Amino acid sequence: MDAPQTVGGTGAAASGRAALEVDPLLGGRAGIRARGEISVLTRPSWEQGLTELVRRHEGVSYVELSDVTFIDVAGVSALAVTAMNLPDGRVVVEHPPPQLPRVLEMFWPGLDRIEVAL
After folding, report:
1. What is the pLDDT of residues 43-77, one digit of tens each?
2. How would you classify the pairing of strands 90-94 and 60-71?
3. CA–CA separation, 12 vs 54, rounded Å?
4. Measured distance CA(92)–CA(102) in Å, rounded
5. 23 within 8 A of 33, measured Cβ to Cβ
């Protein structure tokens, strides 16, 4: 995943459709950074980014979501299932939108494979 995975693009966001970019993290940390909305319209890019996260996982992987404005329950579910299926280690989710920790607590209380850093 060397190039951003984009759904919608700039014109789509301006016309009211959702857009999502998922890129690898810079600075030597294993993980991904997402920008935009994670919803039914952008799920393929989100799931492709999570697949890349698993491929590059090295004990601790990071998911930077400070530029994500919304994540739906299915998007949180995909993240939780990805974390549960890792052979070892954990996923640190940094700066998520407010609904992510709530959904994790509601459906996966005590999931120790995901750490949320607000």
Report:
1. 999 999 999 999 999 899 999 999 999 999 999 99
2. parallel
3. 29
4. 16
5. yes
The C-alpha atoms of residue 108 and residue 31 are separated, in whole angstroms, by: 22
Give the integer Cα–Cα distance in Å for 78 and 50: 8
Contact 25, 64 (CB under 8 A): yes
Cβ proximity of 91 and 84 under 8 Å: no
Q: How far from chain centre, in Å, is Cα 92?
A: 10
Could you name the CATH architecture of 5-117? Answer: 2-Layer Sandwich (3.30)
How does pLDDT run across 6-48, given as a tens digit for each residue? 433 433 444 456 799 999 999 889 999 999 999 999 999 999 9
The Cα–Cα gap between 44 and 26 comes to: 22
Question: What is the C-alpha to C-alpha distance for residues 57 and 38, in angstroms, rounded to an integer?
Answer: 21
Q: Is 22 helix (H, G, I), strand (E, B) or coil?
A: strand
Q: Alpha-carbon torsion 12, 35, 3, 5, what sign?
A: negative
Widest Cα–Cα separation across the chain: 42
